[in-house]
Amino acid sequence: MGFQNQLFIFCTLLLGFLKLADGKTRHYTFNIDSHNMTRLCHTRSVLSVNKQVPGPPLVAREGDRVLIKVKNHVANNVTIHWHGVRQLGTGWADGPAYVTQCPIQTNQSFTYNFTLTGQRGTLLWHAHISWLRSSIYGPIIILPRRNESYPFEKPYKEVPIMFGEWFNADPEAVIAEALQTGGGPNVSDAYTINGLPGPLYNCSSKDTFKLKVKPGKTYLLRLINAALNDELFFSIANHTVTVVEADAVYVKPFSTDSLLITPGQTMNVLLKTKPDFPNSTFLMEAWPYFTGLGTFDNSTVAGILEYQRPTSSNYPSLKKLPPYKPTLPLMNSTAFVTNFTRQLRSLANAKFPANVPQKVDRKFYFTVGLGTMPCPKNTTCQGPNGTKFAASINNMSFVLPSIALLQAHFSGQSNGVYTTDFPANPPVQFNYTGTPPNNTMVTNATKTVQLAYNTSVEVVLQDTTILGAESHSLHLHGFNFFIVGQGFGNYDSNKDPAKFNLVDPVERNTFGVPAGGWAAIRFLADNPGVWFMHCHLDVHTSWGLRMAWVVLDGPQPNQKLPPPPSDLPKC
Ligand code: C2O
Ligand code: CU
Prior knowledge:
Blueprint: H1 3-17, E1 25-39, E2 42-49, E3 58-61, E4 65-72, E5 80-83, E6 109-115, E7 121-127, E8 137-143, E9 157-166, H2 171-181, E10 190-193, E11 210-213, E12 218-225, E13 231-236, E14 241-246, E15 249-256, E16 258-261, E17 266-272, E18 282-289, E19 301-307, H3 334-342, E20 362-373, E21 388-393, E22 396-398, H4 405-410, E23 443-445, E24 448-451, E25 455-463, E26 472-476, E27 481-488, E28 507-508, E29 510-513, E30 517-525, E31 529-535, H5 538-542, E32 546-551
Parallel strand pairs: 1-4, 3-8, 9-12, 11-19, 20-25, 22-23, 24-32
Antiparallel strand pairs: 1-2, 4-6, 5-7, 7-8, 9-10, 12-17, 13-16, 13-18, 14-15, 14-17, 18-19, 20-21, 25-30, 26-29, 26-31, 27-28, 27-30, 31-32
């Protein structure tokens, strides 16, 4: 899609924002199609929603019901996940394939039906099967109720900025090959802003996102990281931004020159434009934060911030000067990441309280990281020392079943589909951030944790150094969690809890576990259903860094998972 088209869509979106009424039901139709797309002078067929990449934004107000009819016109099985939407009482609409539903098959359709309860801000939707989300993704914009305002200056305009990844090859072929050979997948060829790689790539300058602004105004940028495998740094030359929201929860505002956004995360920032017309344009850039071993896409996506001059003669047109470039943190700058994430705090005021669980019913200590699987006989594998790459939580590499976990749970037929003995602690203790053990083989299984309704849960996520310390973008479906603590090295259950922030920790659905460190999260299991938790770096998900929580019904009628919708796809 050309720049003009993109511009049109975003302008329509901006105008649409202002007029929405409250408490409505909003209907959308998502046609899963394929169309040709050209980036970096490579043309290939991409799968998309309504032939757009990014796809159409879902725009609604807090409290609205949304119905999205998804019609699958392609050969691939598809599901859509509404990333970060709490899905209170609507677990059937969550969307991860083989977790809450069987996929929508060719020529079939399914209507996702849910209400946006107690949330306002930016989220994203994306395909949730294999790597289809590489091109099937779009923004979710939840405006405050009509009579409510933002807890910050009213922006002059709102602009979604969606980061993605472009592969010259078909991403489905890329992951299929990697899973077959056991090696690491080929990395992407470009990052994109709203689908556009920008001028720093070969054959790409015509595909540049341009943000035209007026001086002296406040813009709300709705940042979304929909990249498959890369945490990203973002910065706008000669401008600072004020972070006001993360994962559709308001935060204490703070200003920064650069920021980190990991896959699955969203962040609203205010951009105040300069009071007068500057005699130049400014690049906004993103490049990866990378801590692992192996290769990664180390390229830079750029868009342009341009002050739009009136055509009248009072403002001589811009001299052709090169644009200002931002200075991004170094690609391995864990120091920047630590400092940045420490600044994210919940508002925690009377209107927007931080309901941090103060008591914990069940504690879990989960290692997250890479590992290996044996190479099948008579084949050669390209993973470490001739093995296949794997990834795990507590050494369990999660195998997706062939029917959906939620269906098995609801019908009381979990036998042979999943077990509920997911280990609460690492099965083998070792120095998780020291020299790795000799045996790095994972166990393949479909194990879950079963939780009684309203259990207060604490999970310490511990990165391991098996095949290299690496930051993991951990995402939990169905809940927000509070990040009550984090640190480097091994978590110390005697000393570290004393340092937990139980007052104003940030509340999110996706969080980067520090490379070679740990993060402690808490959530209240107040939502019956089966909820996926996984690394949002898709390659790690594909390798098995995923598990599921089965949250049982509560005693009251409104604490029970209702029966499945009649059009729920069959496997
Ligand atoms: Cu955004 Cu399970 O994913
Ligand atoms: Cu990961």
